[in-house]
Amino acid sequence: MAGLNLKNLYKSFGAVEVIKGVDLDIDHGEFVVFVGPSGCGKSTLLRMIAGLENITEGELFIGETLCNNVEPRDRGIAMVFQSYALYPHMTVYDNIGFGLKLARAPKEERDRKVREAARMLQLEPLLDRKPGQLSGGQRQRVAIGRAIVRQPEVFLFDEPLSNLDAALRVSMRQELTKLHHDLDATMIYVTHDQVEAMTMADKIVVLNGGVVQQVGAPIDLYQDPANLFVAGFIGSPKMNFIEVTAKTVGKGEVLVQSDVIGEISVPLNSDRVKTGDKLTLGIRPHALSRSDDGPFSGQVELVERLGNETVVNFTLSNGSAWMAVLDGDEPLKLGSEVRFSADVGAICLFDAAERRIR
Amino acid sequence: MTTVALDTPKATSTPKALRKDLRYPSWFYLPAGTIYFILFLVPTVASLYFSLTRWTLFNSTFIGLENFQQFFREPFLFQSLINTVIFAVITSGAKVVLGLLLAVLLTSNIALRGFLRSVVFFPVLVSVIGVGITFTVLMHPTQGLINTSLEAIGIDGPGWLTDPRLALFSVALVDIWRGVGLATVIYMAGIVSIPQDYYEASRIDGARPIQQFFLITVPLVRPAMVTVIILSFIGGLRLFDLVWAMTRGGPGFASDVMASVIYKQYQAGFYGLSTAGNVVLFMLIACLAVPLAIFLNRREVNQ
Q: Cα A341 to the chain's mean position, in Å?
C-alpha cells in the first residue's frame, strides 16, 4: 500500500526548466488529478513518477522507497497512455497479459488474471481481437485492463479520455471512479479538462508553468482559489475579472473603484490592502444576477438559452468579455444593454502579484 | 478538368457530356502505355518467341525447345542457375538481418548518428563497377590490402576471388557491403514510424531492451522487412554488374550467375541460347519472388 512523496522535484530539458520545485504528498488510495493548461508540466511530472523521464533534482518516494533511479517496472506502477499504446500486433488477451508474460508468471495464473480483468471491464467477448478492430472506448478499457493485471500500487493516467467522444467520456469517467473505488489503489490522473478534474478527484493539483499553484479538494479550489490563475482555471464558465483600485480601506471592508463599474464595497478580513492599491476583482458567472441598478453593465454579445439556465456573454464598456449564467430562461436581445448585480460575498480580490486577498 | 454539376438534374439527363468527361482523362494513359508496350511487352513476347529459335539480327529459324534443352544439359549453365539462387539467398538474408541491426543502432541515441547514417548509406551511391574494381584490387591474393593486413597479424589470407570455392561468396560479401545501406534506410523509415508509446508502455510492463527488440520492433517493422526481403532477393537473382566487374564469372565458371552466363552466350553469338537463358531467369524470378511476396504480404494482412 503506497502513497507518494514528491520532494522539491525539478526537471530540465537542456536549458529549459519544465518542473520547478514541486512538493507534493499523496496518500494511499487517493484519486489525485494534475490539471493545468498545455505545457504546464503536468504530463512531465507524471512521466517522472512513472520513470519515463529522469529526475533532474529532488526526491521521489513511492511508498517508503526512494525511486529516483528505480526502473519503471520496479516502481509498482502502471500507466494508461493518451494513445492507449496497445500493441497492434497482439490480441487483446496478449496485450493484457504482456506484463505478466514478461514477468514469467505461470500460465494458469496469467490466464486467471487476464480473464478476471477482462470480466471486470466487460472485455471477455473481445479477447481474441486485435486493437485495430476495437472502438475507442474498448481500446481504452483494454489499456486499463493491461494496467490492472499488474496489480500496481499506483495507477497513472495520462489524459486517457481525450481521444473519446463526449458521451463516452462521461461514461468512462464514471467507470474510472468506480474502478478507483473497487481497487482501492492510488490513482494519479493528468488532464487539461477541469470538468474531469472536478468530477473525479479527491484532490486536485493545479499546475502552471511547472509550479504547483494550489492543492486541494475540488470544491475548495472552486470556492476558495489561492490565486488569480486557479480562480480563472477552475470553474466553467470561467471567472470574470476586472481591474480596480482600492479607494478607501475600512474595517472589515474595502471600497474598490473603477471607471467601468463605479464603486463597490467588498467585505475583507485582511490588512494587506492599502489605499491606492491596484487590485483585480473576480466574480463567477453564476454569482451574477439581473438588476436594474447593479454595478456591472454591458452590451449583450451572445445569449445561449438552455431552458433551465441562460448563458449571457456581454462586453463591459472597457471591452472585456464577461459571462453571466442566469437561472431559468431570460430572453435577452443581442446588442441590448444589460445590468447585473452580484452577491458581494462571492467577490474575490487579488493583489498585484495575483495572489488572493482573503 | 471540366466538372459536371451533379446537383442539377440537367447533368444526369445529358449523358453525352458525362461520357465525354469520362473519356477525357483516359488519353493520359497513352504516353505511358506506348512506352510500356514498346519497351516491355513487345520485347517480352518477342524474347519468348526468339528463345525458341536460332536467330541473328536479320533472320531466325524455329528450333522448338532445343535452346532450353541445351541450357539445362550444359553443366556450367545449370551451375549458374544454382549459383544465382545461392547468391540471392545469401545476400538478401544478410541484408535483412544486418540492415535491421544497423537500423536499430542508427535510430537509437548514439553519438555521431548523422555521420554514421551517411557512412552506411554511402556505398549505395557509388558506381557498382567502381566498387567491383576497388574490391578486386583489395582482394588480390598477394598484393591486396585485405590479405597484406591479414598477413601482418600472421594469418595466411585465402585467394578471395581466385579460389573457386570462395569466389562466389567473396562477390556476395561485396554485394552485401554495397546493398546493406539501402536495406538500412528502408528499415530506419519503418522503425521511426513505430510510436514511442509502445516502447514506453512495454518498459512499464517490464520489457528489457532485448525483449523490446524481439516483441515490439521486429513485429512492427514487418512491412519494411517484407520490402527489404523482396527487393534484395530479386536484386540478388538479377545481379550482373558486380560479378562481371569482379570475376567475370571466374575462376572457370565458379562464380557465374544466370545474368553473366546469358551475357557470355550473347557475346559468343548464341543469341537464341542467351534469349532462352533470359526466359529461364524471368521464370525463376517469377516462380520464387511472386509466391514469396504473396506469402509475406498475406501474413502482414493477418497481423
A: 30
pLDDT tens for each residue of chain B, 303 residues long? 344 444 444 444 455 555 555 666 777 888 999 999 999 899 888 888 888 887 877 777 788 777 788 878 887 778 888 899 999 999 999 999 999 999 999 998 888 888 999 888 988 888 989 989 999 888 888 888 888 888 888 888 788 888 888 888 999 999 999 999 999 999 999 999 999 999 999 999 989 999 999 999 999 999 899 999 999 999 999 888 888 888 887 788 888 888 888 888 888 878 888 888 888 888 888 898 888 888 888 765 544
What does each C-alpha distance from A294 to A263, A328, A339, B135 come to in angstroms?
Answer: 11, 19, 6, 93
Decide if A177 is inside a domain: yes
> Could you say which of A52, A83, A102 has the minimum Cβ distance to residue B205?
A102
Which residues of B fall below an 8 Å CB-CB distance to A? 195, 197-198, 200-207, 211, 215-216, 219-220, 222, 303
**Residue A111 located in a structural domain:** yes
Q: Which residues pair with A342 in a beta bridge?
A: A288
B204, B215, B302, best to mutate vs chain A, most A CBs in 10 Å: B204
- Please calculate the CA angle A255-A256-A259 and round it to the nearest 5 degrees: 135
- Nearest by CB to A99, from B195, B198, B205: name it: B205
> Using the beta-carbon criterion (under 8 Å), do B204 and A78 form an inter-chain contact?
yes
Is residue A90 domain-shared with residue A225, that is, in the same domain?
yes
> Counting one residue from A and one from B, how many pairs have CB atoms under 8 Å apart?
56
Angle between helices B271-302 and B42-50 (to 10 degrees): 130
Cβ within 8 Å of residue B136, ≥6 positions away = B161, B245, B246
Are A222 and A261 contained in the same domain?
no
Q: How many domains does chain A have?
A: 2
> C-alpha angle with apex A182: A181 to A185, nearest 5 degrees?
70
CATH code for the domain of A202: 3.40.50.300
Pick from B197, B207, B222: CB nearest A83: B197
Distance to chain B for A336, nearest Cα, Å: 42
* Domain ranges, residue A63: 4-230
Whether residues A128 and A222 fall in one domain = yes
Domain annotation for chain B: domains and CATH numbers: 9-50 (no CATH), 67-302 (1.10.3720.10)
Does any CB of chain B come closer than 8 Å to the CB of residue A54?
no
| One domain for residues A342 and A195 | no
Distance from C-alpha of B105 to C-alpha of B44, rounded to nearest angstrom: 43
Claim to verify: residue A213 and residue A331 sit in the same structural domain? no
Q: ipTM value, please give it.
A: 0.83
Question: In this complex, which of B197, B198, B211 lies closest to A102 when CB atoms are compared?
Answer: B211
Examine the domain organization and report whether A329 and A351 are in the same domain.
yes
A235 lies in a domain? no
Regarding whether A247 and A155 lie in a shared domain, the answer is no
Predicted structure pTM score: 0.79
- A276 phi and psi, to 5 degrees? 95, -5
Question: Does the residue A337 lie in any domain?
Answer: yes
Q: Which three cell numbers stand for residue B141?
A: 591474393
Residue A191 sits in the same domain as residue A249: no
Q: Do A72 and B216 touch (CB under 8 A)?
A: no
What is the distance between the alpha carbons of residues A298 and A321, in angstroms, rounded to a whole number? 9
| CA distance, residue A96 to nearest chain B CA (Å) | 10
